[in-house]
Structures are given as structure tokens and as C-alpha cells.
Amino acid sequence: ALKMAEEPHYLTWSIETVAEWIKNLGFPQYMACFTENKINGRKLIYVNGSHLPQLGITDFEHIKIISSEVRELLGIEKIPWNRSISLRHRDNLGLYLEEKGWTGEKADALTYQEFLTTLEA
What we know:
Blueprint: H1 15-24, H2 31-36, H3 52-55, H4 60-74, H5 92-100, H6 105-109, H7 112-120
């Protein structure tokens, strides 16, 4: 788990670092899928089973493995498709990553500590 003010390290990953990570997972054949689509650490937040075919990854078993590895890297749980809207909000890290996924000055400057402070307000 993240310490209070600690930023997730993968948010600063370059496109090349993400491609290398994919290679190290055992999928060197997909490195180009990630580099050609300019997937850096921030964009990795949005990579899931629904988006992988758009990147050119169509093997269902590979999609399941890569999606699982991305969730593990991000430290977020899989959200069931039938999750009730009456349940408590998702974990703080998941909510933070949604905010960091945006581009722009405000998202660039947002730290995990600041985000936690806004949640408590």
C-alpha cells in the first residue's frame, strides 16, 4: 500500500518503460502495440480488457493476463460489472488514478497527498 504522500512510481514511466514492462511480463510481441499507441505510465491507468483489442491485442488469454498485471501494478481491484451503485466509493488510490488520468496543468500538479486532503474536506 502507498504511504500517505507517496506517488505511484509508474505514473512517470515513459512509453519505452511501459513497453519494456510488457516485454518483461512475457509479451515482447506486444511492445509495438504499446509504443505505437503512445501508452506511457499515465495512460496505463486506462488500459484494461476493453481497451487492449483497440491496441491490437486480441488473444483473450493474453488480454486477461495483461489486464490483471496492470491492475496489480496500479494497486487497484477489479470492479465487478454488476457492482451496486449503493456501495461505498472505490478505494482512494483508484479514485486518485482517475483524476491523474486526465491531462493538463491541474492533473499534472495533483499529488496523492493533496488528493487525500480534498477527500477529507
